[in-house]
Amino acid sequence: MKRIYLKSVIAGAAMLLSTTAANAAIPEHLYMVGPASPSLWVLDVAQEMTNEGEGVFSYVGNLYKGQLQFINEKNWDTGIRYVPEADGSWLTYAMDATIIGEVNSNRFWWVPEFGTWEVKAFFADEGNSVMFTAQRIDDLSPMVVPMGGASGQWDSAFPNPACNIYPQEGTTDVFVWEGTMPAGERNQLKFIAYPTNWWEAEFYLPESVDEGKSYKTVKTGVKYPVKKGTNANGDNLDHYWGFAVEDCAPYRKYRATLNLTDMTIEFAGGEETYVPEQLYMVGTASPSLWNIEDCQEMVNEGNGVFSYHGNLYNGELQFVDARDWGIAIRYVPEASGWHIVNAQTATVIQEINSERKWWVPEYGNWDVEVRFTDEGRSVSVTAERVGDMVPQAIGLGHAIGQWDCQWPTPSAYLQPKEDAENVFVWEGTLTPDLDGSGQDLRRHIKFIAYPKAWDQGCIFYVPESVDHNGNVKTVQVGDKLPLQQTTNGNGPLDWFWGFPAEECTPDKTYRITLNLNDNTVEFTDANGDPTGISDAAADGMKAAFIGDNLVVEGATSAIAVYDIAGRRVAYSTNGELTATGLPKGVYVVQSARNAVKVIK
Hints:
By secondary structure, the chain is an all-beta fold. A hairpin with a 4-residue loop joins strand 31 (about 365-375) and strand 32 (about 380-385). It starts with a strand and ends with a strand. The chain is built from no helices and 50 strands.
C-alpha cells in the first residue's frame, strides 16, 4: 500500500508528519466517492470536483449522511485517496485533521447530515500538504430516485446514480420519469427522496393499492394521489404503482410525472404498437436448441400470424423476434413453465432478457401458431402434437467435431434422403483421431436420434461389436455393418465406428450412410462411388441465396431443399430451382449425388 502523510495547511504553514515527496503531486482531478457522495460507490461516474487552479478544488451540491473519500483518479487500484488519519473524522472538522494519501485505503470521512454542502480542497508544497474545508449551507437540492421493476432498482441505499431524477425545468418539485414497464413485475414504480437505508428513507408511494395486492393498477390520463411514507411512521414501504400486464411491452414507452406540490402522479404514453416481421423458436424443445444464431424461424403467414409444423423436443421453449439476445423481445407465459398444449389459456407477456419459458411435454411432430392482434397489443399461442417426430439423426464424434449429445449445433443434423426418410448420409474427409501421445483412438462417428442428455433416454446408434481400444469398430470402404440402438443402462453409449489413421488423408472423401430401415451403417468412397449423393466431379450443383431467393443450378437429378427441422421446403425434378419466400435460417440442398448447406 502506497501512503503519503500530509498535514492540513493552517494559516499558510505546512507541517509534515512524514514525507515521500517523490510520490506526492498536486492532482489534476479530484473526485468524491462513498455513500455520502452523489455517485455513491460507482467510480465510473464519481462526482468530480471543480479544479479552480493552483491546487484548489471545489464542490457545491448534495451530500448524503455517510462515508466519503476523495480520490485523484477513477481507478481503485492506483488512485490515491485523501482520507483522515483518524478514520471517521467528521467532514465539518476536516481543516483540523491530519490527512493521509493512501492507495486502497479503508479510512473515510464522515458526513453527519444530508444537505447542500460547500467543500474545498487546497493542495500546496507540490502536493505534500493538503487541507479540506466543508460547510453545510442548505437543505438537499430537490431530487428523487425511481425504485421497482421499471427502473430495475430495489436497494434504496445504493441505487444507480444515473437513475437520479432532478426537477423539471422551471420547477423545484415536479419530476418526470420515462421508460418501459415490465410485464412480469407488477411492482413497477415508486420513488425515494434520496439514497439512504430503507429505515431512514422517505418514500413516495400510492395512497392506496389494489385489494390484497402490493401495487396500485394505473392507467394513462388519470392523476393518482401520492403519500410520503417512512418506516418511523409505520408505513408499508413496499407499495408500488403498476400497469396491467396487457398494457406492458418492451417497446411501449411511458412517462410518469410526480408532483410533490399537490402530491399526485400522472402517467402518459403507452400508445406504441408492434407486430414483428420475423418470429423464431429457441430453447431445449426447439430444433435449434439455444443456438440463437441458427434459431428456428416460423413461417410468416401474414396478418400477424406465424406458424410452425415440425419436430419439437420435450423441454423449454421461447418465441423471440430477433436472433440477438440483447435486443430480442421474448413472447413467454406470465406463469413460467406453462404447458404449451394449454397455451391458448395463458397470458402472454413480452419481455427482453426474460427467464420465463413455455414447456413442451412430449417429443413429437407439432403444429404451433402465434397470433398477434390489435396491432400487436394482444398475443396468443396455440399448439398441438399431431404425430411422432419426423425421422432425424445427429452425428457425433471426431469426424463431426461434436461430442455433446444434449447440445449439438444445428450443423451436425443429418437430413433424410429424399427417397428414404429413414436413411441419413454424412460425407467428408477425415483426420486421424490421436491422443496426446499419438495413440490412434479412431472415434470417428456414432449417431443419436435427437438431442437429449445421455442419462435421460438419449437414443444412440452405435456398432454391434468393437475391435479397437474397447470402444471402436474399425471399418474400411465397402463395409456394411449392423448397428444397435442403445440408451443409458441398455447397451454401450461410447462406441464408435472409425478408420485407421493411415486412411485419414486429405485426398480421401468418405460417405457414411446410416440406414434405420435395416439398422446398418455403410462406408463408401465418395470420390469413386457413382451411386452416392455428392460426387462433385459428376454433379456440379451450385446453391446460393441471391437476394431473397434460393437459386440452385447444375444438378444432374431432382433437387430437394430441407430446413433445419428436416422439413422439405422446396423440390424440383429438373436439376434447377428458384425458391422464394424462405425465412432466414440454415438449409440443406440435396440432389442424388450432392448435398450443400446454405444459410440465409
